[in-house]
């Protein structure tokens, strides 16, 4: 009886291990198929921070944005990335929102994001350079407040699944960071008391949509 229980336990352990490896297995991103990959907004974020009087870093995020990757598996560096952000989706967690809608002020004020005149922030990649198997630099054109400037992002490839277990679609995931000087785009209000440098942190999963 004891040996039967031992065999059953080993089978159970082996089955559990195989299930775990199936769910979390990641395939190399260059094994994924070519095509268009679209952002999964439920598993993505754009968070930015800026110095406040040199005392703290004020943190906020955008809740509504979109992105696509035109992916070339045979030549990853020739892939293209397109992204757009809705500045009306700013979220700051301002503590007295019932007294002052600070998110709306930032989004609409002409000295800040001026969303009534510039309803989107746009990015188009121009160059991707692989540094290692899972890191790259990506250069591109950022259009913000009607001004287009070159920016560079440090990109980390987090992993890929040929068959993501929930969507059943090929999926890839990335983290990226970049820094911009807001004054270069004409946003100069309160500089330098409110920092000129804005650090941006990006997370995203992309799934294939052109089956």
Describe this structure in words.
There is one protein chain. The longest helix is centred in the N-terminal third of the chain and has 23 residues, at 2-24. An 8-stranded antiparallel barrel has the order 1-4-5-7-8-9-10-11. It has 2 helices and 11 strands. It has a single domain (27-208), classed as Lipid/polyisoprenoid-binding, YceI-like (Lipocalin, Beta Barrel), CATH 2.40.128.110. The protein is mainly beta and 211 residues long. Strand 8 and strand 9 (147-161) form a beta hairpin. The chain has helices at residues 2-24, 102-108; strands at residues 35-39, 45-52, 56-62, 65-71, 80-85, 90-91, 121-130, 135-144, 147-161, 171-181, 194-208.
What is shown here, in short?
This protein is mainly beta and 211 residues long.
Keywords:
211 residues; mainly beta; eight-stranded antiparallel β-barrel
Based on the coordinates given, report the CATH architecture.
Answer: Beta Barrel
Q: Which class do the helix and strand fractions yield?
A: mainly beta
Radius of gyration: 22 Å
> Which spans of ≥5 residues are poorly predicted at pLDDT below 50?
7-27
Tally of DSSP β-strands: 11
Largest sheet: 8 strands, antiparallel, barrel
Q: Helical content, roughly?
A: 10-25%
Q: What is the succession of H and E elements?
A: HEEEEEEHEEEEE
CATH class categorisation:
Mainly Beta
Inertia-based shape: globular
């Amino acid at each position: 009886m004891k040996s039967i229980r031992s065999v059953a336990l080993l089978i159970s352990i082996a089955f559990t291990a195989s299930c775990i490896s199936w769910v979390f297995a990641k395939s190399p991103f260059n094994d994924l198929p070519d095509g268009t990959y679209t952002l999964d907004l439920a598993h993505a974020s754009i968070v930015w921070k800026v110095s406040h009087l040199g005392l703290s870093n004020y943190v906020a995020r955008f809740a509504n944005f979109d992105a696509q990757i035109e992916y070339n598996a045979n030549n990853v560096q020739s892939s293209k990335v397109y992204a757009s952000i809705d500045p009306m989706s700013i979220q700051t967690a301002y503590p007295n929102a019932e007294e002052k809608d600070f998110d709306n002020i930032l989004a609409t004020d002409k000295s800040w994001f001026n969303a009534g005149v510039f309803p989107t922030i746009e990015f188009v990649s121009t160059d991707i350079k692989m540094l290692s198997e899972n890191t790259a630099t990506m250069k591109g054109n950022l259009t913000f407040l009607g001004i287009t400037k070159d920016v560079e992002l440090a990109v980390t490839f987090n992993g890929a699944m040929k068959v993501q277990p929930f969507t059943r679609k090929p999926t890839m995931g990335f983290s990226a960071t970049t820094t911009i000087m807001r004054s270069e785009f004409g946003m100069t209000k309160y500089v330098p008391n409110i920092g000129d440098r804005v650090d941006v942190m990006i997370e995203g999963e992309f799934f294939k949509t052109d089956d």
